Each structure stands twice: as C-alpha cells, then as structure tokens.
Queue: 2 jobs
Job 1
Amino acid sequence: MTKTSIAVGARRIDLSTPAVMGILNVTPDSFSDGGQLQTEKGSGVFRVSLDKALRHAEQMIAAGAQFIDVGGESTRPGAPEVSEQEELDRVLPVLEALQSEFDIAVSVDTSTPRVISAAIAAGAVLINDVRALSRPGAIAAISESDVAICLMHMRGQPKTMQRDVQYADVVNEVKSYLQERIAICENAGIARERLLVDPGFGFGKTPEHNFQLLAQLQAFQSLQLPILIGVSRKSMLGAATGRDVDQRLAAGIAATMVALMQGASIIRTHDVAATIDAINVYRAVLGAPITR
Ligand code: 9MG
C-alpha cells in the first residue's frame, strides 16, 4: 500500500485525501507559463514581479492548493541550465514573500545544493528535485534538515533528454531507478517518511513511454511511498489529442483521474480548481460524503 502521509520535522502532512500542488514558475522560459510573472516584458532582463507571483499563488491557494511549488529553473525539454546565483535570485524573494503572506506549505523545485540549503533556511517544507538528489552535494544539503523530498525520475538532462529515448521496460527501469535513489537517501540517514516518488512524465520519455507509465502507475505503489505526478499541459497530452499547450486542460484532468485511481497522492498542476474538482469526483466515487 502507498503511504498516506509525509513527515516534515515533527509535523505530518496528511495525504489520505489526494493533495494539489500548484505550480509557480518564476522562469522566463518554462514551457506553458514561462515569463508570465515577469515585471516588464521586453526589457531584456528577466525579473520576477513579486506582486504577480503572490497574486497567482493567492488564486491557487483560494482554489484549494495545499502546496505551492516554486521553481527558478525551466526543466522543459531543450531548456538551458541556469546559474546557481540566477536561480537563487529568482526563487528566494518569492519564497520569502509567500512565507510572510500565506499559511501554505511551500515546495521548491530545484536540484542545486546551494538553492536547496537556502530554500530550507527560508522555510520550504519540501524539495522537489527532478534529478532525485543526484547532483554532488544535494544529499548533504538536505540530510541535516527535516524537509520532505520528492525524488523524480529523469533520463538525461533537460537540454538533451528527448533525443533518442529508449527503454526495454520503462515501468521497471523507472521503478528500479527510484528504488536506488530511495536506498541512497536512506543510507545517508534521510528517513523514509520524508520521501515521495514521481515517475517524471515527459522527462526523457516518448509519449508511448509516458502512457505506459500512466497505465501502470499502480506498480509504483510497491515502493510504499506517496506518489506525486505532474502531467499538467505536457506534450504527452498534445500527442494524444493534437491540442496546443493552452488547450490541454480536459486531457490533463482525464490523465489525472487515471493517476488518482491508481493511488497518486499529490497532483502537481497549473490548473488547481479543475484538479480539485477531479479529486472531489474521485472521492465521491470512493463513497466520501457529498456535502455540497
Ligand atoms: C518541475 N517539474 C516539472 N514537471 C514535473 C513533474 O512531472 N514532477 C515533478 N516532481 N516536478 C516537475
């Protein structure tokens, strides 16, 4: 069975009802929302508008997000790497402002040890690492803390990950990788209760691989950790429907329902309100009281 909570220090975050993680990308180039939170377009320099970021977060929280995931590095296919300083400059002011304005669990989407340490010091409760703590120094940056960690599978690096992707058995290969990363964390003294796993839809996978993973998501339950998924607006949905990135809401909700029915605990999404509706329908199907 999948675990239904995660530990953050002495606190437990209950996941017996699936939770929504709203995406707050503070990047100029993320694939569906890059640059939206920029101060002034056309100035040539990307600066996050704190006010726009906070208002966007506020809307997601009002719609029911239990986590806000702040990311300063675009991980879309083909994205270039960002410098450590640039990532810090994008993420930290937003993280600090979120902490002072809202009572919300903030997650930081980063693989960079210095950003991990700074995010933890600034109050992040979860580190969402698409590289599963594989960068040198990432485990050390986290092991002294008590935050939760999402270990995601990615093959290669964003810049090149969609080139010539091959797996003999995508489900088992992704699962074995996650198993290895869990063991590495545990050997470094990171308690299992702090970990979440994510198969990494779209990260070094063809649409067929992504749909095989989605079809067999329940196989990840044997890892006995909460499962986080992110399919929001991704190209796998475009491949299945022929729709552009801004027309993929219905497809994303359909994929989310498939994931919920196989035990997904956290849904990372741009579209919080619609995802909460999907969770409420799923809960009603399971027999939860209908109160509206
Ligand atoms: C940062 N990021 C982009 N897509 C993601 C996904 O599918 N999962 C996680 N954990 N992070 C993601």
Job 2
Amino acid sequence: MEKLVITGPTPLKGEVEINGAKNAAVAILPATLLIDGVCTINNLPNISDVQILCKILEEMGAKIVWNTSNEITIDTRNINTNQAPLDLTSKFRASYYLIGAMLGRTGEIEVGMPGGCKLGARPIDQHIKGFELLGATVEVGKGTISAKAKCLTGNSIYMDVVSVGATINVMLAAVLAKGTTIIDNAAKEPHIVDVANFLNTMGADIRGAGTDVIKINGVEKLHGDCTYSVVPDQIEAGTFMLAAIASKGDLLIKNCITKHLECITAKILEIGGNVEDYGDSIRVWYSKRPNKAIIKTLPYPGFPTDLQPQMGVVLATANGTSIINESIWESRFQYTEELNKMGAKITAQGKTAIFEGVESLSGAPVYSSDLRAGAALIVAGTAANGVTEVYNLEHIDRGYENIEEKFRQIGANIERVNE
Ligand code: UD1
C-alpha cells in the first residue's frame, strides 16, 4: 500500500505550475466521440481518470498517440462498438459523458454505473430527463445504464437543479441533434465553457456557455484536424492558493485564469491573506494565523465544493470559530474526522461543520475518503508539526498530476512510500 509521508511544518514557498483541468479533460475526451476525424488535445492533465478514459476510448476503437505526457492525438474514425467496457466505466464518475457523446454519434450506448468519489447520493435524473426530452429512451439496469435513440431532436430543457454533469451531458447529446436545444438553469463552471469551446472549434454551434441559458443549434457533422488546449484547473490552482495560507507560505501559482479564482481570492482577503493578481498567475502569501470565516459552497461563481476541504484545513487553525455550510454534497465532511486526529476541533453534522480554530495541527496517520479530501490532508500535513502519513492515494492520483513532486518543489518534506 502506498502512502505519502509528510514532515512539517514547512511554509510552502516558490512557484507552482497548474495543469489542465481534470473536470474539463474528462468531458472533452468523451466529446471526441462526436468527431469523425483526428484531433490533438494538449494541456491534458496526466492523471488516472484521464488514463482510464483513454483506455476506454481505445477499447471502443479509438487510436490514441501520446505526443508528450500532456498531449494526445486521437483518431475516432473507427469506433466499432456501442458498449463501453463496464469494468472501466464503473471506476469513475465522468464515464457518464460517454452516454451523451455516443447518443450523438450512433444513438446507442451501454456503460457501467458511474463510480467516483463517495460524496453522498449522486443522482443522474437530470441527465436522463435531458436525454429523454431529446428523444432517447434510457434504462437503468443492475450496474449499467443504456440509452437508445433513433433520432435526437432539439428541445427546451429546464434543469431542476444546477448540475455540471447534466449540463455537459445534454450539450454533448444535442450537438448533432436535429434543430435547436435550449438548456435553461444550466451550470456555469469554467469547464462547461471549455467543453463548449472545444466542440465549437470542431464545428458545433453552441452559444451562451458560461451563462444559465445555453443554446445549441444542431449541426450535421463535427470535423477533426484541430488542436485544442484544455483550460487550466481552477481547483488545482485554488488548492495551492489555500496551501499557501495554511502553511504560512508564499506561492506564485502559474498557468491559471485568475478570473476563475475570484471567490477564493475574496475569501483569502477576508481572512487576512494577501493576494496579487497577474491575470494568468496569482501570488498568495500570509505568515500569520488567518481570521475566522463563514463559507457556503455554491455552484460557480460561488465558493466551489471541491475546495471546501482545503478551506477547512485553513479554518482549522484560524483565530476564532468558523462555519462551513456544504450545499452540494451530503457527505463532504469526512475529512474533518481526519483533521480532528491531527488536533483540530471540528464538529460536523449534516451539511454544516463548526471549526473551533486551534493554534496548530500535529502530524498523524490519516485516510483520504475522496479526491479533494486527500488534497486537503496533504495541505494539512505540510502545516502540521511532525509526521503525517496520508493513505488511500488512489483518490488523489485520480485528479492531481505529480502531486508530491509539486509540493516538494515548493519546499514540502514529502515522500511517497510503498509499505
Ligand atoms: C461535478 C464535478 C465535481 C464537483 C461537482 C459540483 C466533474 C467530473 N465532477 O460533479 O468534482 O464536486 O460537479 O461542482 O465535473 N444532481 C441531481 N440530479 C442530477 C445531477 C445532479 O440532483 O441529475 C445534484 C447532485 O446530487 C448535487 C448537485 O446536483 O447535489 C450538483 O451535482 P453536479 O453538478 O451534477 O455534480 P457532478 O457533475 O457529478
């Protein structure tokens, strides 16, 4: 079993380069199924979710060449099956994008029930409602989902909840449908804009991505012969911004879009931290205990749920009592039990957690329950006194490329050890 061994405390200092966004990459790769041609995707994060998706696409007949560790050329002209490998698709969440993409391509698909982080109930009723309104029939079986459509026809779809996944999935299915689709109450996250930009580069006609009404005029065909660069990862950048504060460090975070980080910047300023915004990089520093804060997670442009655990680490040692209200996922406070093992005083109940700020954390063996919880525990390890061992690294490797190397380069005393 692998673990990360971190000896702290070390103020994290220096420069860190942000990779392409995981949540954009895991949608853009399935989106290539809508193309009858060859395209090149760069700034692709080399993480396990991306590697598994590439394997799935290859098993379905795609040809993929890795030009560098962050760039692939993918040829989807010879897709030869409507069945995605069930064992691989059930390993992670974003495999549900294969449904929208294959409905668009051939009108038929079966995938394994999407897995992913256990954050509580993760219904997909809005995806299904969208597909059905476009003319598909969807069957949820034991461990599988299959969808079929003779012909997809544009329609007006009102999302009952703001859902990143459902917005992207319906957008994928609508790109090659007949006529116009309107998605109302759409999610507005940067990766939704990125997937729309990718599809438009390949010949789609999607307007309004990034607002809550997206209009998709169906086109006959998407062409290849394009190169597309994945948007920088908002969540990875935010993780390092909060790591700078938690560790009392000073970081220049490069290759990010600071506009996507505004709500994190605002909170860091509110708790006393310093931020300098250079447009495509951002410096964050602070050497004192941060002030308490009240946080509520919300869909973009609100405070992202995927940065809630990292913010929790900051608030664990803040001056005074802080409150976090998690409004997206019901089981996103599992990391607080691990922080309590490190000396934090956090009481989590339902969707609310109360953080009584302590002076400092102490190293301990801790277990990541999910991807972002794992990142938060690494941040906590760099700030804590003594040795922290972080287990369950498979969660972290799903979404962060080279994480220990990046932390090492900014001064962390961190090592991956195989027990
Ligand atoms: C995506 C992100 C994930 C992030 C989440 C919220 C990817 C691969 N993952 O997950 O990292 O934490 O957005 O920013 O991009 N819901 C329904 N019915 C549905 C779909 C969703 O009720 O059909 C609810 C969910 O239970 C949740 C909320 O809507 O409470 C938001 O979920 P959604 O935005 O769909 O999350 P994901 O796309 O799964």
